[in-house]
Design goal:
globular; single chain; alpha/beta; 5 strands; 5-stranded mixed beta sheet; 38% helix
Length: 177
């Protein structure tokens, strides 16, 4: 992972951002950036099809707010990851930092492999809402089960998936506790 300052023009918004902000929340974000600057970096990866550009995995709205404010340089953490890992990270970061909109998130998840979905944290309420939008996704999500083996001690667990129900880290889709 590298920490760098990037040109806002070289950062590309995630094609299917699973999160959406209301106009009111976006105005609050811009006010915060105006007053305090960036309190957290964007999480980006090198764009697979556009050399010299970066795909934003987390921080898309901060980037949009910065552009609207005329900010040209953005602090970013650059990671190397596969397309599958990028989708997983984008979902995990957005569910950890906000309340994703099911109709926006469902098509994003539908493009993921079952293997990748096992590494995404979604609570039961969100899974129920997602299942209403895509029957095939519903079948896949219902097949995925959490076992005790997936708790805290599993190497490689994504650190932003702390379960709100049991307080442990999981790398699968739902807490059965």
């Amino acid at each position: 992972m590298q920490l760098r300052t990037l040109s806002a023009d070289k950062c590309i918004i995630l094609a299917r951002n699973p999160q959406n902000l209301t106009a009111r929340v976006m105005e609050g974000l811009k006010a915060s950036i105006r007053k305090d600057g960036f309190n957290s970096t964007l999480l980006v990866r090198r764009h697979s099809k556009k050399p010299g550009y970066y795909e934003v995995l987390s921080g898309n709205h901060r980037l949009l707010a910065a552009r609207e404010l005329g900010i040209k340089s953005i602090p970013a953490q650059i990671i190397d990851c596969t397309d599958e890992a990028a989708r997983r990270i984008a979902v995990n970061m957005n569910t950890a930092h906000g309340d994703p909109i099911p109709e926006v998130l469902a098509p994003f998840l539908a493009d993921m492999t079952e293997k990748a979905l096992k590494d995404v944290y979604l609570d039961k309420a969100l899974i129920a809402e997602l299942c209403a939008f895509d029957d095939d996704l519903a079948v896949t999500l219902k097949k995925l089960q959490v076992t005790a083996a997936l708790d805290n001690e599993l190497p490689g667990a994504f650190p932003n998936c702390k379960c709100p129900k049991c307080g442990k880290l999981h790398i699968a889709t739902a807490c059965k506790r």
